Amino acid sequence: MTLEQAAHIDLHMHSTASDGRLSPQALMTLCHQRGLSCAALTDHDTIDGVEAAAHQARVLGMTLVPGVELSTRWQGVGIHVVALWHGTAQAPMMALLERLAQARHDRALEIAARLEKVGLENALARAREQNPDARLLGRPDFARALVEAGLVPDMTRAFRRYLGAGKTGDVKVHWPTLEETLEGIRQAGGVAVVAHPLRYGLTRRRLGLLLDEFTELGGEGAELISGYQNDDRSRDLASLLVKRGLYASLGSDFHYQGGALAPGTLSSVPRSQLVPIWQHPRLIPAFKRP
Ligand code: AMP
Ligand code: MN
Ligand code: MN
Ligand code: MN
């Protein structure tokens, strides 16, 4: 299947294992209802939902590609890397995930301390209250705590004032570097994909630098389309990826129902010479129909 025909593939989605609102099972059922034949679950820094999603996918006759969206840092920017692989996660991937669990823990303490300074008392306990399943804490838990405490009217404002890029609660120092992350993915036999390249607010020149370094460090793919995207920017991104020989991936970055996005919601794919990620030699077996 060519990239342009990929109407029933979504390789970037979240479940309740991280900050999504649907359980892995319910997410797969929704994917199936929406006519997807192939999906990847890519929760933030955890694969806790993958087994349940894979089971449900099998029941529904769908293909579930195991994956994760890893938090990294590069030149002071928080960059997300999607890793996809075939079969069970290997030891180096588990080591990376343990490292990220510790990083999320340490980061939560620091975010809490910072939010207490701007008036959110008992910030850590309040964030934990938003997270009854005891997942790893994320910024959305702190955002909800800020809303509950009445410091902001809604999540959008919580990010805009306190947690978004460059704000006091945007703490990145704990994340592994891009280099360490790509090394871990390589050792685990996975394929590394730059998540939503157009969503870091990088200039075209810095995005080029990121893609250069990513490729030099062994990264092999990038999301050509992430949810809704401007067609001109998609075309330009395609040319940046072609230049570096990267494979193209696609995903909605779906988190919850009722918003603008659903599983499989993607802007149109520009014509290009890019090779789809499902044709990557190490991933071909993962994409086989059940
Ligand atoms: P974390 O991985 O803990 O740093 O949290 C980042 C997550 O917060 C992203 O993956 C989004 O799901 C969510 N997020 C980021 N910005 C916003 C925003 N402006 N409004 C709502 N949620 C956001
Ligand atoms: Mn998220
Ligand atoms: Mn992301
Ligand atoms: Mn995501």
Report on the structure:
The structure is a single chain. The chain has about 290 residues and is an alpha/beta fold. Helices cover about 40% and strands about 15% of the residues. The protein is built from nine helices and seven strands; from the N terminus they run βαβαββαααααβαβαβ. A seven-stranded mixed sheet has the order 1-2-3-4-5-6-7. A hairpin with a 2-residue loop joins strand 3 (about 65-75) and strand 4. Helix 1 (about 25-35) runs parallel beside helix 2, helix 3 (about 90-115) runs antiparallel to helix 7 and helix 4 (about 125-130) packs across helix 5 (about 140-150). The longest helix has 27 residues, at about 90-115.
Question: How does the SSE layout of this entry go?
Answer:
Blueprint: E1 9-10, H1 24-33, E2 38-41, H2 50-60, E3 63-74, E4 77-84, H3 91-117, H4 123-129, H5 139-148, H6 155-163, H7 178-187, E5 191-194, H8 204-216, E6 221-226, H9 231-244, E7 247-251
Parallel strand pairs: 1-2, 2-3, 5-6, 6-7
Antiparallel strand pairs: 3-4, 4-5
Helix pairs in contact: 1-2, 3-7, 4-5, 5-6
The structure holds adenosine monophosphate (AMP) and manganese (II) ion (MN) (3 copies).
